[in-house]
Each structure stands twice: as structure tokens, then as C-alpha cells.
Design goal:
Layout: H1 17-27, H2 32-36, E1 42-45, E2 60-76, E3 84-93, E4 98-104, H3 109-114, E5 120-130, E6 133-137, E7 140-143, H4 149-153, E8 159-162, H5 171-181, H6 194-199, H7 205-213, H8 218-249, H9 262-268, H10 276-289, E9 296-301, H11 307-320, E10 324-328, H12 332-346, E11 363-367, H13 373-385, E12 388-393, E13 407-413, H14 420-427, E14 435-440, H15 446-452, E15 457-461, E16 471-477, H16 482-497, E17 501-505, H17 516-520, H18 528-538, H19 546-555, E18 563-566, H20 572-583, E19 589-592, E20 605-610, H21 618-625, E21 635-641, H22 648-658, H23 662-671, H24 675-678, H25 681-684, H26 699-715, H27 723-732, H28 735-743
Parallel strand pairs: 4-6, 9-14, 9-15, 10-12, 10-13, 11-12, 13-14, 16-21, 17-19, 17-20, 18-19, 20-21
Antiparallel strand pairs: 1-8, 2-3, 2-5, 3-4, 5-6, 5-7
Helix pairs in contact: 7-8, 8-26, 8-27, 10-11, 15-26
Length: 744
């Protein structure tokens, strides 16, 4: 909830144009309401100093500490007046540790008179290292003078709020701006219905805003946080509940499989029995397809749990009912792989209109951007005439010229890789809204599913099909124990000698178009600690590259084996040829980027070596690992890293090696990322609406808010009797975000 009408005044009118400009550009704050919802990150207690022992390197910090000593040094400097330069070194302490502050040149005079031993102050700056000691160079500071009542009272009596700040605007300057706008908090409209607020003993919104910014006790902070979490959870859940309600009013064609049709013929020729989970989830989907409003279902399943089989059966049911089904894949490699495996699974049932095709057969058509003109023309014709019951493609499917005869079902594979506009465009291809099935192999904790995909019903496949083998995972510390890496290549060779195949995954391609600087940042956001270790141990080298590693392996430890590279910048035909050779067993070792992360299915591949594994996210490692162990032989995944044992990155790799439970790993992954990323902000292009709510920790609040929101919307879909809630909703759902939720 970003704004309420009484708080829409632009900040430049209140805090001045210069401060307002910094707040807008660096903190995304534009109005009085935005600033009131910019909550303190933590609070320092007067008299109890913040820990200096835990300062993160390379980050902007705000600390409360006391000056222990201050020394002015002079040194020879040709640039300084009279050849004498000045350096002020101030040591501050908080009981847990010490920190050095340094000031140079003309900047020494003011702190030299103000930062006397015994002075307590707030200091803000970027933590750096000089001579193996942490320091702040030219930090901004604000003395806390106990004798000056204004200075102390402005920090809210006993507790000093420390705000999320930036280099251009320190925490205490934000605190002073908040002080200016705080009286406006009394005018905040309360979006929570009174019965809900009273029933859950939540304080009114104006009181929560006053308490979060100027608490007199820890109980004030707790009460304010409880209330503000509810606002965020409830308003978002109301938006999703209204979306679900609106979807339930839309018309759709009911698609029921016919007896003795394509689905029955397919099930009859399956060489194995579906798992209990597959049967249960398929039934949930068939029940949805049989209704006259569009299905909106999220199918999440562990890597290798048989989601594609469930999706294919849903598509066959729709074809049985006279409609067409489209499967949207994020990459050409994956689209081709899906097409190949679906045609193989269906056999003669995929040969509609062809000699030898079964009586109930349909045509399975592939449509990608790189197809030749003739193949593309034929595919478009198959779609518009209805000849093709199933079409599999990339974003080429959503181009304007693509027309369907009767699109009944859209299956989106790996939802997080598609922009919402793309999904929406494909959904718009039906005469009436088609049913929608979204598949993801990245297990999503329940709270995230409720928050991000709250307008979708959720089905979970957590059983692996019979015949799937366990995957053993180990961390290979290449820097600490080089002989472990040598042994890793021996293991790959042993697997190949048994008749199996292996993947080697690298973070970078390594051709001339690669930008090493850019590549070295490609491993996701690392903490300052990680970066410091990375520089110390990996000697600032760029991430390992497919082309280099393939060459080195073929000439060195894997000499004599068939080694081939695969990456995203290869021509589509070349990529497909490489995948075909690997699938056929002609290539023994495939050295690839994460292009193989999803959907690639080669049961004979039993080993995977992931180079620079610390540069990948937890969920991505889990996804990659799922490419092995897909047949009857056990799988092996080796996570190679140069990180030292104490590094957080090593702990993360250890967690991946220790469990095959994707849901557990997704929690670890989520705890290491900002909430905003989880909520799809990269796709929606707007700032995260979650400032107080943590989707992992606040499961109970989210679940309760979802129930309350559903009840409110069922009773009053247009929120006619809830004007304050409607206003809060309008503020949350600016045009861009409303579109995002609409299309999600």
C-alpha cells in the first residue's frame, strides 16, 4: 500500500526540492505517503551501542558509537599547502569492536573540533579495508548530545530509528524529513474493515505509522509491525481475490475428454503406470477443464516428477473435446525437446493426417522463430485449419499473424521465464478465454504461491515416478583440494566407460562477444563478504567459460572422449543437432551453459559437473542437477568451487548437496533474496509493495489475510461498502501493477 489520498502531497513541497530529488531518484519516494511507508530498518537504543563487530564490507552502514581517541597526523604532500598534508584518525567503539574513521585535507577541521573522546554520535559511510583494518573514510556524522533536548527528542526518546538510506542521504536526514511529515499520519485512511481490525486486535493505521517511526518502547514497534504487515498482506490478497472472482465470471468452453478418444488411446499404450500424484493432479485439471469458466492452475512439481506427462494428458483431453492446445516454452532448445519427447510418447497418435497414423491421431506441430519460410507457412496453416491439435513453440506463437482454429488450453512451461504480456497475448488468441495451466519445476513455498500466484489454484506433484534414481551430490573444493577436482574428472570417465554420459555446466560462453566484466557479475547478487572472498581466492578471474573448458577437457583429463559444447548463441539448427547427438549417445560429454537447465531429458546421462557452482542460485543448481538420474542408473552431481570453507557460498553449496528436497532449498533460496524479486518486480517494472511483510516468516498472516480477503470480496466484489480499502487498492494497483496482476 503506497499511498492514501490525504498523503498524496509531493515531497518537494514539504522537504524541499533538493532532498525530494534524492529521495525520488535513489529511494523511489515521491509523496508524503511514500515517506511515511519508508519504515526504519532497525532501531538503536540510546546507551546501548550498535555492534561494530558485524560490519559488512563494501556496504553503506549507519552505526551509533562513542569516540575512543582522535589523532591528527601531518605528512609530506606536494599537493597540500606548504607541502604539509593533514590526516585525522578517529577510533570509535561500541564495546563489541572498534572502527577507524579517517578524514583528509580541509575535511579534518570540523571533525577535529567535534569528535572529541567521549563524544557519542551516529556515523554513516561505506565500509572499506586499509592495512587489514576496517574503516570509514570521510563518514557523515551526527553527534548525539544528551544535553541538547531537541537532538535527543528528535530520535524519539529511547529508540533511534535507523532507516534504509543511500550514499546521498543519511539515515538521520531521512529521520528529520519523517519528523516533518509525521503529523500527516493522523489523516491516513484506514483500509482494514473495522470488524477485521477489532477482531484481530490491530491498532488503527495512523497510530501504527506514529509508533513505527517514533516508538517509545519495543511494544510500540511490535504493535506497529503487526498492523503494517496486515495492511500489506490484506490489500494484496484482496487484489488477488478480486482477480479470482472476475475470472470465475468469465465464459469459457467446457472441454471434456470423450470416451474411447485420443486420451484413452494414449493411456492404453503407456508402458508404465501413472503415479498416484499424477492421477490426482490430472483429475483436478480435468475437473477444471469441464467447467464453463477458464481454469487458472499452477502445476508445481519437483524436477523429474512427470509434469510434462500431466500437461500432455490435459492437452489430449482438450483435443478430444474438439479444441487445440498450445504449449509455450522459454527457449528453442526446450521447445524442440518438448516436441520431440511428446511425439515420441504419442507414437502413431501424433501422426494425424499421415499414412500409418492412428484413427484418433492428431498432428503435433512445432513453431519457433528460426524455422524456414516453408516449414513456418505449413505450421501456420496447421494451426488456422485446426489440423494441428497440439502446437509447441516459443514466443513465436504469440506473433500477430499466428491464428488458431479453436484454442482451448494454454500450457506455459517454466512460468518465471515469461513476461506477463507474452502470456496475455497467447491467452488472447482464443475465441473465448482459453484454460491456462502454468508449470514450474522450481518448487515454491506455500506462502509465495499464495502471494505471487494467489489468483491461480495450485497443484503439487511431489512423488517421483517409479524407475527414477537417487542423485548423490558433493561439493568439490578445487582451490583447497585440487586432487578432488582430478578425481571428479576420473568419475566422469568411469561413468562414460559404463556406457553413460555426462554434463559439464559453466556460467559463461567464452566467445568473443562475451564481456568478461559483465560475466563476472552474472552469478546473481552476492554479499560484500562473498565478493571479498571471491577476489581473494579466485583472483578476480572471470567465470569459467564453455568454449575454454570444452577445449581443455578434450585435450586434458577427458582426452579420447567425444566432448561437445552447447550454448545459447549457437544457431538453432546447430543446437538441435548437438542435442540430437547427445540424446542418441554419440556425444559422451556435453559442456553447456544453463541452456540445459529445464526440460532436457536424456535418461542415459548420469553425471554432472557444475563449474564455479557458487555463481549459480540455489534453485538453479537444483534444477540443473535434475538433468541426471532420470533413468535406472544412479545420478551424480559434483559442485566445483574455489570458495574457501568458511565462505557463505560454501554453506549454500553444502545445503544443495545435503538435500534433494526442492521445497526446502527454495526456502533457503528465498531467504537469501529480496522479497521484491520474489514478487516478480523484475517483470512488472514497479517497486515492491512489500516493506514490512516477509513472505517466508509471515506465513500465518498471509494465510489469514487470504481467508479474510476472500470473505470480503465474496460479500462485496466491487468494494462498494469499503471506500478506504478501494482507495488503498487503487494505490497498490497503479496502472502498471494492475496489468501485471491481471495478466499473471
Amino acid at each position: 500500500m503506497d499511498l492514501v489520498p490525504a498523503l498524496e502531497e509531493p515531497l518537494k513541497k514539504v522537504v524541499g526540492p533538493a532532498t525530494a530529488k534524492v529521495m525520488a531518484e535513489h529511494l523511489g519516494l515521491h509523496t508524503v505517503g511514500d515517506l511515511l511507508h519508508h519504515y526504519p530498518r532497525r532501531y538503536a537504543e540510546r546507551g546501548e551501542l550498535t555492534r561494530l563487530a558485524d560490519l559488512p564490507l563494501d556496504e553503506h552502514v549507519t552505526v551509533v558509537a562513542q569516540v575512543a581517541s582522535a589523532r591528527l597526523h601531518t605528512f609530506k604532500s606536494p599537493k597540500a599547502p606548504r607541502g604539509q598534508g593533514q590526516r585525522l584518525e578517529v577510533t570509535i567503539t561500541d564495546g563489541s569492536g572498534e572502527l577507524r574513521l579517517v578524514f583528509f585535507g580541509r575535511g579534518v577541521h570540523k571533525p577535529h573540533t567535534e569528535l572529541l573522546p567521549g563524544t557519542r554520535a551516529m556515523f554513516a559511510g561505506k565500509v572499506s579495508v586499509f592495512n587489514h583494518r576496517l574503516q570509514l573514510a570521510h563518514p557523515a556524522y551526527e553527534p548525539l548530545r544528551g544535553a541538547d533536548p531537541d537532538a535527543v527528542d528528535s530520535w524519539a526518546g529511547a529508540l533511534l530509528p535507523i532507516y534504509p538510506a543511500c550514499k546521498q542521504l543519511e539515515s538521520w536526514k531521512i529521520a528529520k524529513s519523517v519528523e516533518t511529515v509525521l503529523p500527516s499520519a493522523r489523516e491516513a485512511l484506514d483500509p482494514l474493515p473495522a470488524p477485521l481490525r477489532e477482531g484481530r486486535a490491530l491498532v488503527p493505521l495512523p497510530e501504527a505509522l506514529l509508533k513505527i517511526h517514533r516508538p517509545h518502547s519495543k511494544a510500540d514497534i511490535a504493535a506497529a509491525r503487526d498492523r503494517l504487515k496486515w495492511d500489506e498482506a490484506f490489500v494484496l490478497q484482496v487484489a488477488l481475490a478480486r482477480r479470482r472472482y472476475a475470472d470465475a465470471q468469465l465464459p469459457a468452453v467446457a472441454r471434456r475428454p470423450r470416451e474411447g478418444g485420443l486420451l484413452d488411446a494414449f493411456d492404453a499404450k503407456l508402458p508404465f503406470t501413472l503415479t498416484e500424484g499424477q492421477q490426482k493432479v490430472s483429475q483436478e485439471i480435468f475437473d477444471d477443464l469441464a467447467t464453463e469458466h477458464p481454469m487458472h492452475r499452477l502445476l508445481q512439481g519437483e524436477v523429474g516428477s512427470g509434469k510434462t506427462m500431466v500437461a500432455l494428458r490435459a492437452m489430449l483431453a482438450v483435443v478430444d473435446a474438439g479444441g487445440q492446445a498450445a504449449m509455450l516454452a522459454p527457449t528453442e532448445v526446450l521447445a524442440q525437446q518438448h516436441h520431440r519427447s511428446i511425439v515420441e510418447m504419442m507414437g502413431e497418435l501424433a501422426e494425424g493426417g499421415m499414412l500409418g497414423g492412428a484413427e484418433q491421431a492428431t498432428k503435433v506441430t512445432l513453431l519457433t522463430g528460426s524455422m524456414g519460410a516453408a516449414g513456418r507457412r505449413q505450421a501456420l496453416l496447421d494451426l488456422v485449419t485446426g489440423e494441428a491439435g497440439i502446437v509447441i513453440g516459443t514466443h513465436a506463437l504469440i506473433e500477430d499473424k499466428v491464428r488458431f482454429h479453436d484454442l482451448g488450453l494454454v500450457v506455459v512451461d517454466e512460468q518465471h521465464r515469461f513476461g506477463v504480456e507474452q502470456r496475455d497475448a497467447l491467452r488472447g488468441k482464443g475465441k473465448q478465454p482459453p484454460h491456462l495451466l502454468v508449470m514450474t519445476a522450481t518448487p515454491i513455498p506455500r506462502t509465495v504461491a499464495m502471494t505471487v500466484f494467489g489468483d491461480l489454484e495450485t497443484s503439487v506433484l511431489d512423488q517421483l515416478p517409479a524407475g527414477r534414481s537417487p542423485i548423490a551430490s558433493h561439493v568439490v573444493p578445487a582451490q583447497d583440494k585440487p586432487h578432488f577436482l582430478a578425481r571428479a574428472w576420473e568419475r566422469v570417465r568411469e561413468e562414460v566407460e559404463k556406457g553413460h554420459q555426462a554434463y559439464v555446466v559453466c556460467p559463461r560462453i567464452g566467445d568473443e562477444e562475451d564481456d568478461p566484466k559483465k560475466a563476472s557479475r552474472s552469478g546473481g547478487k552476492k554479499s560484500a563478504e562473498d565478493r571479498a572472498e571471491q577476489e581473494a581466492t579466485a583472483e578476480k578471474r572471470p567465470p569459467l567459460a564453455v568454449l575454454d573448458v570444452a577445449e581443455q577437457l578434450a585435450a586434458g583429463p577427458l582426452r579420447g572422449l567425444e566432448v561437445e559444447p552447447l550454448h545459447g548463441r549457437m544457431q538453432p539448427d546447430d543446437k538441435d543437432a548437438v542435442m540430437r547427438r547427445f540424446a542418441a549417445g554419440e556425444t559422451q560429454v556435453l559442456v553447456a551453459t544453463t541452456v540445459i537447465e529445464v526440460g532436457v531429458n536424456v535418461p542415459n546421462a548420469t553425471a554432472m559437473v557444475i563449474m564455479d557452482a557458487d555463481r549459480f542460485g540455489v534453485s538453479q543448481l537444483h534444477q540443473l542437477r535434475g538433468r541426471v538420474g532420470r533413468g535406472s542408473a544412479p545420478g551424480l552431481c559434483l559442485l566445483v568451487t574455489d570458495m574457501p570453507e568458511a565462505a557463505p557460498a560454501r554453506a549454500r553449496l553444502g545445503a544443495v548437496a545435503a538435500t534433494l528436497d526442492g521445497f526446502e532449498l527454495s526456502r533457503i533460496d528465498l531467504e537469501q533474496r529480496r522479497e521484491g524479486d520474489v514478487l516478480g518486480q523484475a517483470q512488472s517494472g514497479v517497486r515492491s509493495s512489500l516493506r514490512m511483510l516477509a513472505v517466508i516468516d509471515d506465513e500465518e498472516v498471509i494465510a489469514a489475510a487470504r481467508e479474510e480477503a476472500a470473505a470480503v470480496v465474496a460479500e462485496d466484489p466491487g468494494l462498494e461498502h469499503q471506500p478506504e480499502l478501494r482507495t488503498a487498492l487503487d494505490a497498490l494497483l497503479d496502472a502498471e501493477r494492475e496489468q501485471y496482476l491481471d495478466k499473471g
